[in-house]
Specification:
Strand content: 35-45%
Distance between the termini: 15 Å
CATH superfamily: 2,3-Dihydroxybiphenyl 1,2-Dioxygenase, domain 1
CATH architecture: Roll
Number of strands: 8
Oligomer: single chain
Structural class: alpha+beta
Helix content: 10-25%
Strand order of the largest sheet: 2-3-4-1-5-8-7-6
CATH class: Alpha Beta
Number of helices: 2
Largest sheet: 8 strands, mixed
Length: 131
């Protein structure tokens, strides 16, 4: 398989949503030795974690649209060729849209879906490879 950020259907990114990004960063740096780099994304305070200089994950504060009571969690992103077409197909297959397709300047277009069994995942089409 080629670059996951360019391959339809490949898991290409993971992201931690947490109430306390600073504590999370300290934990994962100490646990895995990650290097951290700030990366403002659409006005959010976003941190990219790197291993050997290569981006491997993102860490951010839980956004306000996340319902109260949802615990901190890791989310996965799957690369798709067309976010809107994939959302339509997912709905036809019984998925629900948790976040409508959204553009993130400098990153790409993404949406968050809930599969028919209730599992949450995100789909993304990158403007350019994040690697």
């Amino acid at each position: 398989m080629g670059d996951p950020s360019e391959t339809h259907g490949a898991f290409s990114w993971v992201e931690l949503l947490t109430a306390d990004p600073e504590a999370a960063k300290k934990f994962y740096v100490e646990l895995f030795g990650w290097e951290l780099a700030g990366s403002p994304v659409a006005g959010e305070d976003y941190t990219v974690a790197k291993v050997a200089g290569k981006p491997v994950a993102g860490i951010m504060k839980m956004p306000p649209e996340v319902p109260p009571g949802v615990p901190p969690h890791w989310g996965v992103f799957v690369t798709v060729d067309d976010v809107d077409a994939t959302v339509t197909k997912a709905q036809e297959l019984g998925a629900q849209v948790a976040r409508a397709p959204t553009d993130v300047p400098g990153v790409g277009r993404f949406a968050v879906l809930r599969d028919p069994q209730g599992a949450i995942f995100a789909i993304i089409h990158y403007e350019k490879s994040p690697r």
